[in-house]
Amino acid sequence: MTQTSGPLLELTKVTKHFGGVRALHEVDMSVHPGEVVALIGDNGAGKSTLVKIVSGVESPETGEIRVRGQSTRLESPRAAAEAGIRTVFQDLSLCDNLDAVQNLFLGQERHGSAWSGRRIRRHVMEEQAQKVLQSLSVKLRSLSTPVVALSGGQRQGIAICRALISDPAVVILDEPTAALGVSQRAEVLDLIRRLRDQGRGVVVVSHDMKDVRQVADRIVVLRLGAKVAEFHRGGYTPSDLVSAMTGAHEPSDDEDGRS
Ligand SMILES: Nc1ncnc2c1ncn2[C@@H]1O[C@H](COP(=O)(O)OP(=O)(O)O)[C@@H](O)[C@H]1O
Ligand SMILES: [Mg+2]
């Protein structure tokens, strides 16, 4: 794992309420280059709220967000993208009737000059699509098949590759293996490892403890809006995760970083 510099993304004491509901309370989280951080917690723990905050969809009431050490306000999804943070939401937001290339460039099409034809732009986009798909070893029989005809793993692959078109430093994945079969799940875990090997910071929200244990370098546990535990690879047992999530016992400090 390469951790030559400080964190790519760092949240300090981030708090957010919805009406009277405490969604997040003074939550700290960071992700370094070449690191996979898993965010786990029961329903209502605050995972989606945290993802929305770092995606620029919601703003925190208090607390600080730093990107590469610089204090930042991620006021919109565009601002988050410009800061190098891209999110793949659970619904993937793919257009079923469009092909892989069209989906990859959806909303970020390469515009040719006024006199260059449509075919030229398509050619440029196809070349770039090939490159980004290859970088994650996403295999498609054809670039022009409507994505509705592809497997769940391939669709997740395309959604992740779309996030990579702008070469983000941080990629956030919301439940990337939910609703996938065993082999496609393994495929997606491989994609996550490749993102890490490319030196990106990866944040994965997941319900699946097995997936989390396989892929996470660090695990942040939220419960009722608060961060209740943090575990490092090799420094926890499966039951530690469950107890932290359910509040069965509060882990002591020496469980953090044991390896
Ligand atoms: N837009 C919203 N309006 C009101 N309450 C919300 C909203 N979004 C989330 N919440 C509440 O905030 C808490 C955290 O929710 P959420 O971040 O979705 O948790 P998780 O993704 O871990 O299930 C929950 O109590 C939820 O009901
Ligand atoms: Mg959620």
UniProtKB/TrEMBL annotation:
CDD domains: ABC_Carb_Monos_I (cd03216). This is ABC transporter ATP-binding protein. The keyword ATP-binding applies. Residues 9-249 form the ABC transporter domain. Transmembrane segments: none annotated. One of its GO terms (molecular function) is ATP binding. It comes from the Bacteria. It holds the Pfam family ABC_tran. Keywords: ATP-binding, Nucleotide-binding. InterPro entries: AAA+_ATPase, ABC_carbohydrate_import_ATPase, ABC_transporter-like_ATP-bd, P-loop_NTPase. PANTHER family: CARBOHYDRATE TRANSPORT ATP-BINDING PROTEIN MG119-RELATED, SUGAR ABC TRANSPORTER ATP-BINDING PROTEIN. The keyword Cell inner membrane does not apply. SUPFAM superfamilies: P-loop containing nucleoside triphosphate hydrolases (SSF52540).
